[in-house]
Amino acid sequence: MNAPHRVLVLWFPDWPLRAALRGAPPHPPTALVHANTVIACTASAREHGVRAGQRRREAQGCISSLRVLPHDPATDERAFLPVLQLIERHAPGVALLRPGLAALRARGIARYHEGEAEAGAALIRVLAEAGYPEVRVGVADGPFTAELAARGPAPCTVIPAGRAEEFLHPLPVRVLRDEQLTGLLVRLGVRTLGDFAALDEIEVRDRFGERGARLHALAAGADSRAVVARPPDPELVRAIEFDSPLAGADQVAFAVRQTADAVLLALADASVVCTEVRIDLTDDDGRVHSRTWLHPTCFDAADLVDRVRWQLEALAAESAKEPVDEARAFGGIAMVRVVPVAVDDAAHHQPGLFGSGTDERLHHAVSRVQTMLGHQGVVTAALSGGRWLADRQVLTPWGERSVAPRDPDRPWPGSLPDPLPAEVFRPPRPIGVQTASGEAVAVDERGALSAVPARIDGDEVRAWAGPWPIHERRWESTGGKRGHRLQIVDGHDRAWLVFSAGDRWWAEGRYR
């Protein structure tokens, strides 16, 4: 096996939390959750017993004020990109291991700063000045050992060449991050990397296969992986600054045409296309008005010019309290900046044999309508998880990516089975459910009705079913949200889904 290379690793503790909360630590008690399991948590949450791998309810039981957020890996990657670019300006050849963890060959930067410890201290200083004081640096033989060194208590830990096995010897086998293998090793009495490295290499390969042999080599400090620098990002952003602010939407759109062409040329040089773009408009007061646009396939120059014009018209409509001259509706634009946010390989967007004009025309028409009705005027619907019908609806403005706040595929005890009501009332509308004598039907503590429902919303009741109790977030100090559902068919053959909360009845939905 080749001798391990000297590697410098930069580790940013709790990076997913920093990316989600958009700020440097310390953070309030917060946990990121995926599939009802804690993925990461802040140091303040760990002080109360919250740990990665816990179930959500168990974590919330440790601290009632715990803030729970969904984990989005894409957010982690987007937030870490500026950090990589900052590191590259001071140490070219950085490699992304995962968001929050980067590596680079130590030789070049160590020679420049006359020592590995000095190089690590220089990077820590640069990143701290840029707002990342939490960074930790480890230098060792190979990325695996260097990462574990970076997780040490000191801001910069340097493991001398040839001393990796000595450093790794007392560490627990769980640092290998292979639950199946490490669980078996612990049951066999192999609890440290030193114990694992002492096993015969051939026997480990025969028993655990190539994966086990690879981890055995890591435990022995023989990490021969080379650090492969990520390719530099193409410079795709283009901007145009006007000597004097332009007032009219058509004036700005005409002037920005060459900028749009420059963006398309930069994309073509990188063999990519743009599927999501952000347009920043800076007015003569220095305020920046930004909006992100999506495209069903990819943008061309005309699409970009249209988005600039529509964004200006929408800005003018929002700022004008009464009909005014468009020339000063938005105060004049001093600069337009076009930022490709998401790109894709151009090979994936070659036109088909019969073209794809229908979808593009639809997107163009709907986007145009949106500029006239406002950003929230045209929305798309998606299904989310939840027990209440209103919670299962996610309405996203056209042109934005829909992200379900709750996984619809998870089990939701107490939720309504299919078929669901075709009409959902947001918010639920008050409705009367009464007995034959005109008194309101009540639900007692045992979930039983006080009388048979006879009238609903002034109409007779032909059939009914229920009630079914629903109670969620019962651990909250307010007792959570609770109620009892009924399905009722009235005299006009309209089927209602109603629920009782407190002393009132509410219509949650209606079947069609």
Task: Give an overview of the whole structure.
- Helices cover 31% and strands 28% of the residues.
- The strands form 5 sheets. The chain has a 7-stranded antiparallel sheet with strand order 15-21-20-19-18-17-16, with no helix packed on it. A 5-stranded mixed sheet has the order 5-6-1-7-8.
- The N and C termini lie far apart (70 Å).
- The protein has 512 residues and is α+β, with helices and mostly antiparallel strands.
- α12 (249-255) packs antiparallel against α14 and α14 runs parallel beside α15 (357-373).
- It has helices at 15-21, 43-46, 56-62, 73-90, 106-113, 116-129, 143-150, 164-168, 179-187, 193-197, 201-219, 249-255, 257-269, 301-319, 357-373; strands at residues 6-11, 30-34, 37-41, 67-70, 95-98, 101-105, 136-141, 156-158, 238-246, 272-283, 288-294, 333-345, 379-383, 393-397, 423-431, 433-434, 455-456, 459-472, 481-490, 495-501, 504-511.
- Mean pLDDT is 81; it is low at 321-329 and 352-358.
- It contains 15 helices and 21 strands.
Properties at a glance:
single chain, 512 residues, alpha+beta, seven-stranded antiparallel beta sheet, five-stranded mixed beta sheet, 21 strands
Structural class: alpha+beta
Largest sheet: 7 strands, antiparallel
Instruction: Report the portion of residues in β strands.
Output: 25-35%
Which regions have little confidence, pLDDT < 50, spanning 5+ residues? Answer: 321-329, 352-358
The rounded Rg comes to: 30 Å
Q: Give the number of helices.
A: 15
Mean pLDDT: 81
Report helical residue fraction.
Answer: 25-40%
Strand order of the largest sheet: 15-21-20-19-18-17-16
How far apart lie the N and C ends? Answer: 70 Å
Task: Compute the number of strand runs.
Answer: 21
Shape: flat
